[in-house]
Structure prediction request, 332 residues.
Amino acid sequence: MRLFEVKATSFRELRRKVGALPFELYIADGADVGFQVKCSRSRLSHEGAVEEHLGRSIAARLGMFGVKVEFPVADATQTVHVRITDDVCRFSLDTTGTPLYLRGRKPNAASATLRETTAASILKAAGWPGFDILIDPMCGAGTFTLEALEMASGRLPNVERGFPFTDWPAFRPKAYAHLKEKMIEEAAAAGRKTRVLAFDLDPEAVETTRRNLAVAGLPTDHVSVEAGDFTDPLTLPGFESIPASARALLVLNPPYGKRLAGGNPKQLYRRIGEAIRNHFHGSYAVIVPGLEIEKALSVPRDGKILFQNGGLRVAAIFHAEPDEQDDPEPGA
Ligand SMILES: C[S@@+](CC[C@H](N)C(=O)[O-])C[C@H]1O[C@@H](n2cnc3c(N)ncnc32)[C@H](O)[C@@H]1O
Prediction:
């Protein structure tokens, strides 16, 4: 969370200005605080010295409010990020601690797994859990499958974990409890009965997804995970028997870049595009690494979200198949 910004070209100016910032709203008595300092293109360029001066002035400020802290500690539970660029010093607080994508329920990773938060965002953007079936034909370690199941079961991830921000003196526990309760209720109301069909070409990935499902503690009665080749979808167990009337969402995170191990990404995406156009009639979300590959995929899209995945700029393209009920009456 961005907090404050001050301009300083000397340590004296930095100490004076930082001493006037209300850190007492965010740092509690006895907190374990650490700094992450980065300086670039600035008169104040020695990160260690900046940290020392900041520590002293913030401690002096907090002392006026009877708050005692030791700066800086190694395993801090509250990190203050400090970026000095072009002599402007910006302070942010880590609100979260352990990253949100670590859900604590997927011990086995295949290579090139998506972050859980990325998978959940793509599913949400595609309208999940408002479908009858999820098809995850390149499931890897099962990230889409696990996130989708959690949403469909009406639960929220990480709901029991703690966050550094709940220790801040400015934290309002009643407002937070109210918001949290509302989110829990909304998630429960959105839950619905769904089927999940997951596949992967690699039998090891199939085993990994099965193991991850087994330890996740999510309902798996309507989930199947099988080996199969999505570029030949009619051979996928259960694919052909998806009723035409079912609302189906297909999510795809095909391999690309280094993960393709010498393969030709355009050729793979061309074949994936053919499989979607010829054999699938529902909604979909597909991760594509760049415009050239998107052209090779050549499927209709209604939306596109750009993001970074494993340091690469990629996009998720979306198509939402209209509900049959949404179609106007013929001749209307
Ligand atoms: C980038 S990984 C998917 C990672 C997954 N989203 C996760 O978070 O774990 C791509 C997966 O596609 C699988 N794959 C590649 N070609 C395939 C094909 N023709 N049919 C099915 N799976 C395929 C690979 O074995 C690999 O597990």
Observations:
- Residues 110, 112-114, 137-138, 140-141, 143-144, 199-202, 205, 229-231, 253-255, 259 surround S-adenosylmethionine (CB under 6 Å).
- The chain is about 30% helix and 20% strand.
- The mean pLDDT is 93.
